[in-house]
Amino acid sequence: MGLTLLVGGTNSNWNPWLQEELDGRDRLCLDPADTSHGPPGRLALIRGETVVAWRFYGGLSPRRSPHILVRAAATLLPEIREEGVVQLFPVSASPLIQQLARCVIELARPTQILMASGTPLPLSPWPAPVEEVECEPALPGAVAASKRRARWRQWFSECEVHSISMFQVTLEGVRLGSGRALNAVELEQAGLSRALRAEIQGGKLWIVGDETFDAETIARALDYAGCDRAQSVSPSAYYDVVCSFARSDGEDFALGVIREANFHTGAFRILSPAVSPAVVDLLRIGGLRIGDEAQELGEAPSWSL
């Protein structure tokens, strides 16, 4: 036998099936909201009770970053031992999610597909036989949120504070750091002396600041930068956002939560269980926000940070 792939809808709960049928096999969980292996926001390969490899995702919905999900699948699938199980994210009626599911299924090349009744996907054609099964209903939203909060509480108890330079690491998942930064003289000439940072990102001028700039100031800045549109963000928008410490080869080694983004010192203050001093090559930033009491504070829209 090869891989078994589990496909369900937004009202499917595979945990009862896994408890009865997994029988020691490897499980690749591609559902970023799953908490059976620890805090959510990760895509994980679990062997027994141990997460042996994982990739950062940074949100709860597969709609947030489909490219990250495909990258994680391509990276982790070769690590599964024979006869493993791949648990797909919940499939909705969205064309994007349905196409994403097909992409992952083609990558996985399973020999068996179990599809929960009611999943908004056709039973054919697929690269392997499909068996339609009855699946337990998903947990109520409040119960699922409570489980995620419990995981975060446990995770916080293992954390310490790390100071990570914003611009001596490579940032992923955000606009910040992806363009050419204006220096102090250029900020003055652009009329943005009160901005904490501004970057030219293609045709967009990205501005970080505590103040709101009027239309005349923005028009002057756009003309100076040669951009046709501008977007601004407050430093506080980065507070409480989940992140990941990763090595230069892309391997994630510790989750984190940003507690402060200080653009005067150019450093993030991050809670993480990583051992100090953490050598971080890549800082991957998501959208899910987690408060001081481990409560979810919503998600920042994709590419808004």
Number of helices: 6
| Structural class by sheet pairing and helices | alpha/beta
Give a quick account of the main beta sheet: strands, pairing sense, barrel closure.
7 strands, mixed
Return the domain count: 2
Strand order of the largest sheet: 5-4-3-6-1-7-8
- Summarize the amount of helix as a percent range: 10-25%
Query: What order do the helices and strands follow?
Result: EEHEEEHEHEEEHEEEHEEHEEEEEE
Q: In total, how many beta strands?
A: 20
Can you tell me the overall shape?
Answer: elongated
CATH topology of the largest domain: Elongation Factor Tu (Ef-tu), domain 3
CATH class of the largest domain: Mainly Beta
Mean pLDDT: 95
CATH H-tier superfamily of the largest domain: Pre-mRNA cleavage complex subunit Clp1, C-terminal domain
Radius of gyration: 21 Å
Strand content: 25-35%
Query: What would CATH call the architecture of the largest domain?
Result: Beta Barrel
Low-confidence stretches: none
Q: Termini, distance in Å? A: 45 Å
Secondary-structure map:
Elements lengths: L3 E4 L4 E2 L1 H7 L5 E3 L12 E6 L2 E7 L9 H11 L8 E3 L7 H14 L3 E5 L13 E4 L2 E2 L3 H16 L3 E6 L4 E3 L7 E2 L2 H6 L7 E5 L2 E5 L6 H11 L3 E5 L7 E6 L5 E11 L4 E6 L9 E9 L5 E4 L6
Parallel strand pairs: 1-6, 1-7, 3-6, 7-8, 11-19, 14-15
Antiparallel strand pairs: 2-9, 3-4, 4-5, 10-18, 12-13, 13-14, 16-17, 16-19, 17-18, 19-20
Helix pairs in contact: 2-3
What does this entry look like structurally?
The structure is a single chain. This protein is of the alpha/beta class and 305 residues long. It is built from six helices and 20 strands. The chain is elongated, with a radius of gyration of 21 Å.
